[in-house]
């Protein structure tokens, strides 16, 4: 608000300076040099006021920026404060001793599993591995096994057997 009021004051001074300059010219034309000098001194004083006003406006704008930045800093500090409170609450829930206990239990469980894996992997010797491979080959062969071939010798001539009863012999069919 102060900045806006100073801007309005600055405008009024600028308009007043223009009027006084024009009036000083008129006084010089009319031959009133003394009055023109007095008016120019007043104008000079108002120009100095105008410069001071400009400096005050700059100071006010800088102050407004500082206030806005301080408000941002306050929000950051408030956020840090809330974050710190949250961390403290989390630390109360989970103590260093509790974390160390959990990590220790996890490491023990991993070590136990590693020992089980070593026992399982290390309990089979090379002979056991060979036996397992032979058994695997045997199972594979069983799946591919063909039916057994008869062991008795095959007859020389196969007797003719007609699959259909009462079938006329080929000679009879030709004679009819």
What does this structure look like?
- With 176 residues, the protein is mainly alpha-helical.
- It has a domain at 1-123.
- Helix content is 80%, strand content 0%.
- The chain is built from five helices and no strands.
- The chain has helices at 2-29, 33-93, 96-122, 126-144, 170-175.
- The longest helix is centred in the middle third of the chain and has 61 residues, at 33-93.
- It is elongated and about 160 Å long.
- The N and C termini lie far apart (136 Å).
- The relative contact order is 0.04.
- Residues 172-176 have low confidence and may be disordered.
- InterPro entries: Snf7_fam (IPR005024).
- One of its GO terms (biological process) is late endosome to vacuole transport via multivesicular body sorting pathway.
- This is CHMP6 protein.
Beta-strand share of residues: under 5%
The poorly predicted ranges are 172-176
Number of helices: 5
Could you spell the SSE succession in H and E letters?
A: HHHHH
Give the structural class: mainly alpha
Mean pLDDT: 80
Radius of gyration: 58 Å
Total number of β-strand segments? Answer: 0
Q: Give the end-to-end Cα distance, rounded to a whole number of Å.
A: 136 Å
Q: What general outline do the C-alpha atoms trace?
A: elongated
Indicate the percent of residues in helices: over 70%
Question: Largest sheet, described in full?
Answer: none
Organism: Campylorhamphus procurvoides
Coiled coil: 28-70
InterPro entries: Snf7_fam
Protein name: CHMP6 protein
């Amino acid at each position: 608000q102060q900045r806006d009021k100073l801007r309005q004051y600055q405008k009024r001074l600028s308009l007043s300076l223009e009027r006084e300059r024009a009036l000083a010219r008129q006084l010089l034309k009319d031959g009133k040099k003394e009055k023109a000098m007095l008016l120019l001194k007043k104008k000079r004083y108002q120009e100095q006021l105008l410069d001071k006003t400009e400096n005050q406006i700059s100071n006010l704008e800088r102050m407004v920026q500082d206030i806005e930045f301080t408000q941002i800093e306050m929000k950051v500090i408030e956020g840090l404060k809330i974050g710190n409170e949250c961390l403290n609450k989390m630390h109360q829930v989970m103590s260093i001793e509790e974390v160390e206990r959990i990590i220790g239990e996890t490491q023990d469980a991993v070590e136990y599993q590693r020992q089980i894996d070593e026992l399982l992997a290390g309990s089979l010797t090379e002979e056991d591995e060979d036996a397992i491979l032979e058994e695997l080959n045997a199972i594979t062969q069983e799946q591919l096994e063909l039916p057994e071939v008869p062991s008795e010798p095959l007859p020389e001539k196969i007797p003719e057997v007609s699959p259909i009863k009462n079938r006329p012999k080929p000679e009879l069919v030709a004679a009819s």
